[in-house]
Structures are given as C-alpha cells and as structure tokens.
Amino acid sequence: MIAKDTVSSVVVFFFSLGAFVLAQNYGGGAELFPRGLAVIMMIAAAGMFLRAVFWPAAIPEGTPKMERSERDVITFCVIATIGYVALIVPLGFVTASVAFVIVMSYALGMRNHLVIWLTAFCFVGALYYLFAHVFHTPLPRDLILELFGI
Amino acid sequence: MFHDIFTALIEMMTIGTIVAMIAGTCLGICLGALPGIGATLGIALAIPFTYGMGPLPALALLAGIHNGSSQGGAIPAILLNMPGTPGAIVTTWDGHPLAQQGKAGGAINLSAMSCAVGGSLSALSLILLAPPLAKVALAFGPPEIFWVNVFGIATVAALLGNDLLKGFIAACFGLLIGTIGLDNVSGHERYTFGMLELVNGVATVAVMVGMFSLPPAWNLVRHARKRQSAAASINKIRIVSEKIWTIAGVWRAWSVASFIGIINGILPGSAIASFIAYNEAKRVSKNPEKFGKGSIEGLAAAECVNAADNASALIPTLTLGVPGSNVAALMLGALLIQGFQPGPQLFRDAPNIVYGYSWALVITALLLVPLGGALASRIFANVLRIPTTLLLPLIIVIASAGVFASQNSMFDVYVAAFFGVVGLAMIRFDFPIAPVIIGLVLGAKAEFNLRVSLMMSAGDYGILIFRPICIILIILTILIVTFPLYRAYQDWRKRRESGGERQVSAEQ
User: Is the domain of A82 the same as that of A118?
Assistant: First the structure.
C-alpha cells in the first residue's frame, strides 16, 4: 500500500509537471485552466508522497492484494485486447472479432468447441448485422466478408 | 409544469419507447445478475448503441437497464448468497436464508416488488423535486455555474472514493483530459501533439466506455471460479413462487428504506445507504429478532433502498448538471450525446425529454414486478451459466463496435483501449474512476464559465467570490472537502486510542 502510493504519487507528479510545462506556450488565457489543474495535481501528489513516507498509517485501506496468477491472466487479457484493437483495421471487424473471441476463449481455458465457434460467428455476425443494417453504421471493411463477396 | 409532465407521459407511449423500456429492463436484470458487471458497465456499453435511436427511446432503454440491474443483483444474492451488485450484499443476509428455507420464489417476488416501490417513489421524487430546483438554478450567472461545477467535482472527488487526495487527482485528471483540443475562447490548440483527431477533443463516449467497461471486463477473470460453482448450483435450486409477504408486513420497511434511499441519492457519495436502511428497518420492526435469519422486512428494506436512489441521484444531475454517481455521470454523457446540455435550462428547453426520462424511470421500475418476478428470474438466473471465458471477449467486442460506431472513428477505439488501461492502472493503485469522467464532462463547462466570469469583471477574481450564492457554494465546497479530513482524523484518533489501550493491557 505504501509502495503503491509512493510510486503513483511520483508518476502523477511528473505527469502534472509535463502538463504544466506543455501549457506554458498556449497564451490567450488558454493556459490558465490546465496550468492551475496541473499545480493542484502536483500539490496533491506531493501530499500523497509525504503521507506515504511519513504518515503511512493515514493511508485508507485499498483494494485487496491480487494473486500472481490472477495478475498474469489480467495482463494477458489487456495485451490480447490491445492486439485485437490493432488488428481491426488490417483484418476488418468481423474477422478480428471472431478470431479474438475464439482465441480468448481457448486461452482462458474453455474447451467446449461447439459453443465457442458457434458463439463467435453468430454473435459477431449479429452485431455486424445490427450496426450495418439496423443502425446503418458500417463497421471497418472485412476480410472474411470480402471472401464471401458480401 | 404539470402540463409538461403529462404531455411527456403521452409522448412516451409509442411502440419504440415501450419496447426500449421492456428490452432495457430485461437487459438490466441480466446484467445485474452477473457479478462484476451491473448498471455502470451495462449503461457504458449501451450508450454507443443509442446514437441511432431517438432521444426518448434511447433514454428509456438506459432507464430500463438502470432499474433492471438493481433488481438483477438480488437474483444471485438470494439464490446463491453471491451479490450481483455491491448494494445486494445486504440482500444476502435475509434473501439467502429464505432460499434455504425453500422460499426462493417468494423472496425473488418480494425483491422485485420492493425494487418497484423504491424505484417508482424515487422517480416520482425526481419529477416533483427537480423542477423547483431547476427554477432556482436558472437564475445563476456564469460565476455561480462555475462554483456549482466546482462543488459537483469536489463532492464526487471527496465522497465517492475513500481517499481525498486520490479523488482530487482523479478529478483534475478528468478536467485536464477535457482541455484537450481547441480552446473554446482563444482558439488555441491544447495537448493535441499535432494529431488532427485530437483537435475536437477526446470523445467522451470513448473515455467512458474505456474506463467503465474494459477494466471490469478484464477483472471478470477474478470472478471466474465463483461463477463456475454458481452455474453448477443453478440446477439444484427449485424456485416455487409462493406468497410469503403482505403489504401490511413490509410497509414500514419500504417507507424507511425509500426515504433513506431517496435522500442518499440526492446527497451523493454514501455507499452505506443499504446498511443504514437495513438497521433502521430492524429498529422499527415488530420482529427485529428475525433479521439475518430470513426476515421478510430485512429483504424488503435491502431491495427497496437499492432502487430508491436510482432516480433521486439524477436530481442534481438534471437540475445542476452535477452528477453524483457513476451511473449519473454516464447519464449526463448520454444526454450530451443526444444533443442536450444537462442543467436547469433542460427543463425550459426540452421538458418532454426530461419528464419523459423521469416517466421512463417510473415505468421501468413498475415493469420489475412482471419481469423480475419468480418465473422471469428463473430464466434470468441462467445468465450465470454463461462462462466468463466467453463473456469477457464478447464485452470487449461490443465495446469496440459501439465506440467505433459512435463517430465512425477507429481513433476512438484506440482512445477507449488506452483509457481502459489507464482505468485498470487507476483501480490497481486505488484511484477512483468516477471523478475522471465527471471532471471530463464538467471540465469544459467549468472552464468556460470561469473565463466568461473573468471577462465580465475585466479580470477581477472578486466576481467569483463576492456574490451571495457564490459564497454559499464556496462554504459548501469547503465543508464537503473538509468532511473526509475530519472523518480521517477521527479514525486516526480511534486507532491511536485503541492502540494505547492494547499497549496498557499488554503491559498489565
């Protein structure tokens, strides 16, 4: 908890300092608000740091500690999500989403092949139909759909 | 006022709006029944889908999700002793013992009825209390509106988390994000780093969906084991619908819980309303000894209070544009997306929308009786069978599609993913997320009113202080900020005293 607050206060302080410095050239009054906010954030971060170092008993209880295995799985999910988002443009929404649902389900330990494949195709297909034909909002162009000439 | 209220009711009675309310309520019950999901994630995911809808069906859908998820949380709480939402923790105390006595069906019926009573009374309080407050707020000038925004941000920062400093950092972070893009007054670009996509600022929907839906989705893996055992035990539960309660037996609990819930909604930041309502219901009960062992009144109070703060939490949101909870912040965003500026002028400019939404909250609360009763809950309880391993990628796919479709922009999807990671880091480092969104939503308005005030006074800051309403708002803001400090001081003193006592007893 103390280490968490020390680290986060340092990160927040330098982030705010960066925001403060970047805002100095805006002019015309545009710098007033962001610089004021950055100063408040720096003061609060300094307060957090001092509290963590000199008065750790005053830190309110935080979230319970996460098990290592849980942390690993969440990290995997985050990386997989970033990968999925990065692949939407090159592969298209349907292909990337079907692949993402299938890969994630298997990677997280599900082994019911029929449910995984059926859900992936039906769910993503229904979502695509909903956006393209009900909301009239086309999703990014797609590899699979192009193969089928849709 | 009454003419507007009844006209809005008539406008709500279209097929599209009625379907949206029913669909929203069913969806809300399902989402509430899934531990780790609930109203906030549900509404965050649904908002991008409302772009293509008219304002009334869109708000009706969101109202249904909001009320439905309150009752949905009771299903796993009663059947499996596993609260679907934080508010349902108290529901487990009497709900699950009732299920163990073979009265699960009756308990779920009672929970639906209690939510309907709490939810509809809360919505009626919104209809009756909001217009007079909006009338007062309409007289506010830019300096007062600036302080109202500051008060709102300070309230959420100070009371929604459990750490004042972190709350303020989160709120300032949200306000800073709100400054990205072209400055409204001077036309200068701020924090755009030469990116064209950032000139119009960061899309509120992308930040909301990223922060409110991705971290809970990733964290679902933490509930995976619990969910697996829950799914396995669904088959073993027999739900027989029987009447186990009478209005005469629960009216005291409903009255107390509704009152506490409504007040709690108006005054944001208290997460312990269900505990207070439960204790008060126990105090006024004729059978307090039954509480915790399957008390009808205990369950009625717990469920009634959960729904009673839904609509009343929107009173400061709709009248002052100051949201007091996560869901209220999302609703503020939803109104902005539909092209409405929340605040007192909404009652003057679009009364059909604001009263229509209030009616949607009343109707969807009442819909909980048929939709959330035992038979329906037997169906909705089956959502617990959906494996987390499948649910997680599906939520992420819905979020991505919704964010993309909101402005046809892949950049917004990247922004959502980025803020998802930021949100996850904030949760891990115990920073609250709601102040970020509220800062983002209110930031531009607060800055605009600050700058206009300074222009009005030719740069004299006195305009922000020496006005009666400003003074009241400044005092309120100071009180709100100092309250957690006082609470922390009291906790510290208690800890010191108990530490001293332990030391004395150890010496003895």
Answer: yes
